[in-house]
Structure formats: structure tokens, C-alpha cells
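Something for you to look into today, if you have time. Just paste the record in under my message, thanks.
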Amino acid sequence: MRKRIPVGLKDYEKLKSENYYVVDKTLMIKDFLEQGNEVTLITRPRRFGKTINMSMMAEFFDITKDSKELFKDTKIMDTEYADQINQYPTIFISFAEAKRNKIEVVQRIKEQLQNVYDQYLHIFGNLTDFEKSNYQKIRKGLINSDDGNLSNVATALSFLMKILEKYYNKKVMVFIDEYDTPFIEANIGGFYDEIRDGLSSILHNALKTSTSLQYA
């Protein structure tokens, strides 16, 4: 079967499973692990492959998946890091659609958080009373997605990471695509001051102060 050219494709699983041409960039996973930085900021021009590379890493690490077939015959499987496949609870979210006005920016951010909470719905069955209280507060904030408010979900990501670590007894991999898009849109749209603190808190609590983070 003739292979297709993956123009605009952003999903690594689809890229590998639906007969597209694939350039093997899996040694980026080795570099990521050997670098050892808790948080890595990747800045490259548009259309440089940032999203597909993060999708690749999320597929590799995600403990809820069996990705051995996807990575069969790739370079990472010939390294000492092959045994790291599907070994970490993994969060992969994108703020690429967090655009236009304040309400829509907040809605898109909360939708991404809702999606990842739904993905790991099975981990919330054995919470302590305090964890249940925090979970309900965050859940209420996420449900109210049209309130233009991010401060009520400031701990949404860090709390999920905490419960993931508790459930799997492993620290968490976090991949955030287009993290800067809502900041840029807010600055252009004149509502930067209205969402800056809430959005910064989400990122700060997850990437700076969380003890459940492996790498991001």
C-alpha cells in the first residue's frame, strides 16, 4: 500500500497506525530523559513538529496504554530506555484552541482539563475526606466553564497529579502544547490582567511546586 504524506497531522498514534510516512525521532525521548531537567521549554517556529513530538512522547510514557507495537523497530527501543515505555501516568493537554475572547479562552482551557479528568476517572474512587472536598471544588470550577474564571481551577492540574501519583505509586509526566497561546490571545484582546493570575497559578502549581512531577 502506498504511504501517505502526513500534512498537518498531530497525532502520533494515527501517524504510525494509518500508513503515513514517519521520520523516526524517537531518540528525542532518550535526550529528554538524559537531560534530567524537571521542566523543559521547547521553543521552535510554527510547523516545526512540536505537537507531534509531544504526542509521540505521551504515547511512549502513558501507563494506561500498550504502545509496544507503535514503537516497534524505532530507535528508542534499541536503547537502555526501552523499558521506560508505558511506565508513567501521563497528562497531555493543549491550549492551541484557547483563542478569541476571555470566555472562550477560559472555556477551552477548562475543556482540556475536563478531558484529562475524564481520562483518569477511575482513580477517584478511594479519596480521603479532604481529597473528596478538593475534588468537588475543582469539579465545580471545571463545570462552570463559561464563568470566565480560572482561579477556581488553579489547583486542578496539580491535584490530578497528586491523585495519579497516589494511585499508580509513580510520579507524573506532563506535556502541555501551546501553553503560551492563551497569554498571547489575552494580551492582544486586552484581558491579560483578568486571566494572568489564574493561568499562571495552574502552571505554577503543576510545574513549580508539585511534588508529584517527574518531568514536563
User: Anything to note?
Assistant: The radius of gyration is 18 Å. The chain has two domains: 8-87, 98-168+180-216.
